Amino acid sequence: MKTTDICDEHEHQVNVAEPIGFRNFGGREEFSGKIETVKCHEDNSLVRAALERNGKGKVLVVDGGGSLRCALLGDILATLAQNNGWAGILIYGSVRDSAILATLDIGVLALGKHPKKSAKKNEGAANIPVYFAGVIFVPGQYIYIDADGILTSATELTLSK
After folding, report:
1. Is there a contact between 7 and 152 (Cβ–Cβ < 8 Å)?
2. What is the Cα–Cα distance from 80 to 133, expressed in whole angstroms?
3. What is the distance between the alpha carbons of residues 43 and 39, in angstroms, rounded to a whole number?
4. Sign of the torsion formed by the C-alpha atoms of 132, 94, 48 and 60
5. CA distances (Å), 90 to each of 59, 102, 154, in order?
6. In angstroms, rounded to a whole number, what is the distance separating the alpha carbons of residues 148 and 1?
7. Which of 43, 71, 113, 136 is most exposed, with minimal Cβ within 10 Å?
8. Tens-digit pLDDT profile for the chain (161 aa)?
């Protein structure tokens, strides 16, 4: 479903993220699903823990504080996510191994890329509401992402067309 069509038909049921410069790094440009979250700062331990679980019908939203000083996702974790059925990953931070990410059948949006890996200290929190781009991302709610934008909704949406 295109975000433009969702906005047209469900204008009062969606929250639209501000266009703060997210870039597509994955092999899927459009993806959607039920939100799971991780809040971390320059430590991707909880990102790995989330992506190790079954992600069928889910999108992992990672609040990395907007850090561009290291990557929270690379080819190994993205492949793990793909193999575990995740629809995609939205990262308020950076990724690495971008050439490989582009070949994987998973959606990946992030602010940028950085070659440095993150720390592994098991710091952060999982499945809590996180806020960035003017939107609160709530676990269990729904997210819709394509080239035109990022939307969230309290309920799963369908189009009548």
Report:
1. no
2. 27
3. 9
4. positive
5. 7, 14, 18
6. 12
7. 136
8. 899 999 999 999 999 999 999 999 999 999 999 999 999 999 999 999 999 999 999 999 999 999 999 999 999 999 999 999 999 999 999 999 999 999 999 999 999 999 999 999 999 999 999 999 999 999 999 999 999 999 999 999 999 86
Q: Which helix (H) or strand (E) holds 47?
A: helix 45-51
Rounded to a whole number of angstroms, the CA Rg of the chain reads 14
**Domain residue ranges in the chain:** 3-19+34-107+117-153
C-alpha separations of 112 from 17, 46, 50, 64, 82 in Å: 17, 20, 21, 12, 20
In the numeric block, which tokens belong to residue 3? 């975000």
Q: Which helix (H) or strand (E) holds 88?
A: strand 88-95
Angstrom CA distances, 52 to 48, 85, 134, 142, stand at 6, 10, 29, 20
Name residues whose C-beta falls within 8 Å of residue 134's C-beta, 6 or more positions apart in sequence. 17, 18
Residues 44, 116: Cα–Cα separation, whole Å: 12
Give me the architecture of the 3-19+34-107+117-153 domain, per CATH: 3-Layer(bba) Sandwich (3.50)
Encoded tokens for 158: 């369908």
